[in-house]
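call fold(seq) -> tokens
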Amino acid sequence: MESPLGKPQLWLNPVERVRFMWTLPEFSNLGNLESLQVENSFAKWTVTMYPKGVEEEDNRYISLYLCLDSSSNETKLKAEFEFRLINADKKTERAMKFHRPKTFAMGQRRGFMRFYTRFELYNSSPELLPNDVLTIAGQIIIHLEPESNILNPAKPLVDSKMVQYFTYLFEIQKFTDITFLIGDRELKAHRPILAFQSKVFGAMFESDMLEKNTNLVLINDIEYDVFKAMLNFLYTNEAPNSDMVKELLMPADKYDLIRLKYKCQVDIYENMTIEDSAEVLFLADLHNCHILKDRVLDFIAINAYTVVTTEGWRSLETAQPRLFAEAYEEISTRIVV
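ret:
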């Protein structure tokens, strides 16, 4: 069953993350505006809080905003961000976020005019103002423009003529110089082609490991059909079969195959349903797919009432208690804006 609300868009361009923790003592005595300076490698930001609201009619609320002060190339930036209120138990009490990238021009601010009511702030349990101290946690995710094909996994690394040549080499299985043994079956390949597309393969072939001396690599953790599909993608640039993308995510992560990992994530996300969303969350966590994981958490939060009734969610609670606890904490506080 598909989500009735659809899914947040999946963005997989390179990103830079900035996290901060902001402690404000004597909150009840603060003036009309407080600010915190935050920096990443090429930009400066200001987080601004209005303890009594940004406008007179909003004086029952606290307001929170993010502003882009400057960037190294003075261009607009795309960023997601979230703010969280941390209670006395060091847990998130309230969270609001933009889960799609927003464009920031220089001096432009975005945020939440009515982030939290002052009444709730003073009457929360566990308390949000222990000893009159307010703690705000936050994260900024800046989306980077791809600088090359290697950083832009949507584009192939080689042109179409080279792909045709690589496909021919893969099909005829000649001039190979490395053999992969999976169980009792073999797959032959060409070192330069693999090393060109994977730093892991390149390091393997250049080191003094057994593989360099014997031209034989034993594969014990990947099924034959999955490994063959991985090689087929590296040679032919053909999109993997949708029935196999979940299995391909593991070798894509293991061998640092950026483009294959990208395509697998997009396919998995686009075909994700309520029933398998917990499984996708597990795969994203297991194989270091941080943005995919964040989007799946958004999807689960939107559809929480139905997701928690699925077998996958119950299995996650039993088999992956750490991830379940993390997911439960996230979706219990996550508000999709």
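The longest helix spans residues 160-172.
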